[in-house]
Amino acid sequence: MNYQRFPTIILILFVTSLGLSQDRPHSYSGLQSRTIKALSEQRIQQLLNGEGIEQALPAELNGYPGPKHVLELAEELQLDPSTLAAVEQIRKTMQANARELGRKIVEEESALDHLFVTRTVDENSLRQRAMAIAHRYGELRIAHLAAHLEVTKVLTEEQRQRYIRLRGYSRHGGY
Question: Where are the domains of the chain?
Answer without folding.
Answer: 38-173
